[in-house]
Amino acid sequence: MLKKSLKSIPLLGFGMTNFNFLFMNRKWAHDRVNLINTLKELDANARGLGPLSSNTPVKTDNDGVVNWDSRVHPDVREKKTNSNCWPYNFLLFPEGTNLTYDTRCKSLKYARKVNKQPFKHLLLPHVTGLRFTLETLEPSLDAVYDVTIGYSGVQNSSYAASHYSLKQIFLEGKFPHIVDIYIRSYELKNIPLRDEEAFAEWLYNVWKEKDELLEEYYISGSFKQESNNTSTVVDKFNVSPSEYLLVGMIPCITFLFILKLLAA
Length: 264
Description:
By secondary structure, this protein is mostly helical.
């Protein structure tokens, strides 16, 4: 999910649209139908009954909501390798944006509004979008993965977004030497989707645990190991010169594209 304004970026906006990125106005009245249709199509494709399997909707409601067959294709149910199942990964940021000084100030106001204790390393998550997404994808969704990322070189009281800005990374060559990723899995059946208050409390507790993980990380330099089920993978991340060149070409091409539009 991305802000709708990003859709207007020359070239990049076209590319993101072509790859079916979901653009949001961040106003539920405007986003509802678009979000429902996108999620329902993902779900239908995963069950082998969507447009990627040459199927058509069962009906379209008066408000524009498209409805697909609610069954599961037999080949998908039997997990046949040649089935028309199209699995998906849906990435969502319940906080809505990066943690910076400005966004933290807004989060503090929101915390007071909902009568919640704010976090030190995170913004308060928004409940509505995540809960709605999980409910809509429930027929084809098994689990939710919570990903917590820690960046080396960031002090306990600073913000990673300002410490490693795009300018610093691409123009000054300043980047985190180590990026630690802590992943936890929650089975969907154990998440209280049906009760809005219970879900909000569950999500808040997940974020509270994430905040504690990050506090430990910025003190000790690593995430704590919780159980025998925890595995650690260490590897190097190398960027080739051609990849740097490609990244540098994008703003140049965008600039030339804008000049061409202005000259037309």
